[in-house]
Write a structure and sequence with these properties.
The complex is a heterodimer of chains A (74) and B (150). The longest helix of chain A is centred in the middle third of the chain and has 11 residues. Chain A has one helix and four strands. Chain A has 74 residues and is α+β, with helices and mostly antiparallel strands. In chain A, strand 2 and strand 3 form a beta hairpin. Helix content of chain A is 15%, strand content 20%. Chain B is an alpha+beta fold and 150 residues long. In chain B, 34% of the residues lie in helices and 37% in strands. In chain B, a hairpin with a 2-residue loop joins strand 8 and strand 9. In chain B, helix 2 packs antiparallel against helix 3 and helix 3 crosses helix 4. Chain B starts with a strand and ends in a 6-residue tail after the last helix. Classes of the chains: A alpha+beta (74), B alpha+beta (150).
Chain lengths: 74, 150
């Protein structure tokens, strides 16, 4: 799966390969909590394939996961 | 019309378009520009990052919500992304309504939601380097004003 980081999250060091056993957003967040906790801060929203999602959304190798930190538009 | 684009926009053209709507009694607008100062340092440039799909979706939803909430005859939101210089316009919001109060309210409402919800990330470049900007507590407080019944 492809991870897309936005805003200040782009400045973080790259993440290692996601374990193949991860099959939903909740599992991904659990893994990231130790791997790269900045990505699972409460203020960061997660989108899968351009849709905001809930934790039980299943994910697979073809999916694109976007991490969106607090915004600053306007 | 909702547009997320890198290039500049023509305010006069959009105002004329809004003013031409049948039944219109007033048009209100707001133009946001790149500040030339940030915490006392001169801003050299601003980078506005966006999400290629979600940004458009969120801005469209904000526009639809404003149209329904204020019974607008039309609304135009244009938000730029990419590299901008100090003084350049970033965002245009224009609302056409039968009466002024709705038009003023809609523009204020859209800006408060853009600031706190639209997926844009600003990075300011000053002489001291670059830093990411996030919504301020005051932006979030402004946004909460609209949670009361209209």
């Amino acid at each position: 799966m492809r991870m897309l980081l936005f805003g200040r999250l782009r400045d973080l060091p790259p993440i290692g390969p996601v374990p193949a056993s991860i099959d939903d957003v909740a599992a991904l967040k659990t893994w990231l909590a130790t791997e790269r906790p900045e990505l699972v801060a409460p203020s960061v929203r997660i989108a899968v394939n351009d849709e905001f999602v809930v934790d039980n959304r299943t994910i697979g190798s073809g999916d694109e996961i976007a991490f969106l930190p607090p915004v600053s538009g306007g | 019309m909702i547009r997320v684009q890198p290039g500049p926009f023509d305010v006069g053209l959009m105002m004329a378009e809004l003013a031409s709507r049948p039944g219109v009694g007033g048009v209100a607008s707001f133009v946001g520009t790149v500040r030339d100062q940030s915490d006392g340092a001169a801003v050299l440039a601003l980078e506005l990052e966006h999400h290629p799909v979600l940004t458009q979706k969120v801005v469209r939803q904000i526009g639809e919500d404003a149209r329904a909430r204020f019974q607008l005859l039309d609304i135009i939101i244009v938000h730029r992304h990419g590299k901008l210089q100090a003084g350049e316009p970033i965002v245009f919001v224009g609302a056409a309504a039968a009466h002024r109060r709705a038009a003023f309210g809609a523009v204020d409402y859209v800006m408060d939601r853009l600031k706190t919800e639209a997926p844009f990330w600003k990075r300011e470049r000053t002489g001291d380097g670059a830093r990411w900007i996030e919504a301020r507590a005051s932006d979030l407080a402004d946004r909460r004003r609209w949670e009361e019944p209209a």
